[in-house]
């Protein structure tokens, strides 16, 4: 069955088609959830919530653009809505915030470690960091999505980068002291 046919069956609440769609995309969308959530259990909850929304809105998909992109946007918005409801975004003074670049050129820093320290970021920093760095949204888009100012988006990104840079430096230092 083709994707267009699968989408049409899902829009008619065909549970077999919904199960097939879930099987096709749940892995990729779970990866998206992990980026935006604090832990595995929260990511699972967000994935389930996202699929409820997907199945409720699938008839609104107009077969223009990437279906996977449409699914990803719903999944990201589901995670973001949870944080908006929790009020994790505070308006902060964005003056005198130095932007820090985080570069990882070292084989000592594993992907697992990077994912772990990104997940450990405070919610407002993690969400902005993921939206900007990993998913390529502009500060204007992020501000609109999170109902914050562009300045708050920029300062949250700068603070996230600073925290990540410090954690990476601490990690490298601890590795070097253990090898001496």
TrEMBL record:
A GO biological process held by the record: DNA-templated transcription initiation
Pfam families documented for this protein? Sigma70_r2, Sigma70_r4_2
Q: Which GO terms describe its molecular function?
A: DNA binding; sigma factor activity
Q: Does the keyword Amino-acid biosynthesis apply?
A: no
Ranges for domain RNA polymerase sigma-70 region come to: 21-87
Q: Which UniProt keywords apply?
A: DNA-binding, Sigma factor, Transcription, Transcription regulation
Annotated RNA polymerase sigma factor 70 region 4 type domain residues: 114-163
InterPro entries tied to this protein: RNA_pol_sigma-70-like, RNA_pol_sigma-70_dom, RNA_pol_sigma70_r2, RNA_pol_sigma70_r4_t2, RNA_pol_sigma_r2, RNA_pol_sigma_r3/r4-like, WH-like_DNA-bd_sf
Keyword field contains Transcription: yes
- What family name appears in the similarity comment? Belongs to the sigma-70 factor family. ECF subfamily.
Name of this chain's protein: RNA polymerase ECF-type sigma factor
């Amino acid at each position: 069955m083709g994707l267009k046919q699968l989408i049409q069956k899902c829009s008619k609440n065909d549970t077999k088609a919904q199960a097939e769609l879930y099987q096709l995309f749940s892995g990729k969308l779970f990866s998206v959830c992990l980026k935006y959530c604090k832990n595995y259990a929260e990511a699972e909850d967000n994935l389930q919530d996202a699929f409820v929304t997907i199945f409720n809105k699938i008839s609104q998909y107009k077969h223009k653009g990437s279906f996977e992109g449409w699914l990803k946007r719903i999944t990201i918005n589901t995670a973001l809505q949870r944080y908006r409801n929790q009020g994790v975004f505070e308006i902060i003074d964005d003056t005198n915030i130095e932007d820090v670049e985080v570069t990882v050129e070292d084989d000592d820093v594993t992907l697992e470690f990077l994912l772990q320290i990104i997940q450990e970021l405070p919610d407002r920093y993690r969400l902005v960091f993921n939206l900007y760095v990993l998913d390529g949204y502009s500060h204007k888009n992020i501000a609109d999505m999170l109902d914050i100012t562009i300045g708050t988006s920029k300062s949250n990104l700068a603070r996230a980068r600073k925290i990540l840079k410090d954690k990476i430096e601490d990690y490298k230092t601890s590795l070097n002291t253990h090898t001496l």
